[in-house]
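User: Please fill in residues for this 167-position structure.
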């Protein structure tokens, strides 16, 4: 328990040191758009983030971190919701698509290494959600509750950084 608390504290301190630099880098690009379009920019960024996160092997998490750092509490809330939505969407798609169809399509396209890879595991949060849906092992409600709890530490760390360490 003590080690977990130390890791959490270290993460919050590192985020506090990292956030001003990232914000300074993004400010010339995002700030003018936000002043002109308001919260529509935030919604658009969350939508792009959700689409990227839903695609297996595409690293969309970094965009989510940037949005949380830039927009503070509003950004943290919308990115959390977008993450749950993206992973729930992939779970739902996974319930409709059997493994053998994906493997067959890859075999038909002569992508044998990809076929073998799909038969063993799919990477990233989107891929894992897809596999969870394909497996049929988990109920949607149980999966959604698990995801909502499992992804909460990062937004909570950002909130802690915002509330405790931001002047």
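Assistant: Residues filled in for all 167 positions:
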């Amino acid at each position: 328990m003590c080690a977990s608390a130390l890791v959490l504290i270290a993460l919050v301190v590192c985020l506090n040191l990292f956030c001003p630099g990232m914000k300074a880098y993004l400010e010339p690009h995002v700030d003018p758009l936000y002043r002109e379009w308001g919260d529509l920019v935030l919604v658009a960024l969350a939508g792009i983030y959700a689409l990227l996160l839903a695609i297996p092997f595409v690293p969309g998490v970094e965009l989510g971190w940037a949005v949380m750092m830039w927009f503070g509490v509003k950004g943290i809330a919308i990115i959390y919701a977008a993450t749950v939505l993206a992973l729930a969407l992939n779970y739902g798609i996974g319930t409709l698509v059997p493994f053998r169809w994906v493997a067959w399509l890859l075999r038909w396209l002569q992508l044998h290494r990809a076929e073998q890879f799909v038969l063993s595991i799919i990477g990233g949060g989107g891929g894992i959600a897809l596999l969870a849906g394909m497996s049929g092992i988990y109920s949607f409600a149980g999966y959604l509750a698990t995801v909502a709890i499992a992804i909460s530490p990062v937004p909570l760390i950002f909130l802690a950084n915002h509330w405790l360490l931001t002047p």
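For context: The chain has a mean pLDDT of 79.
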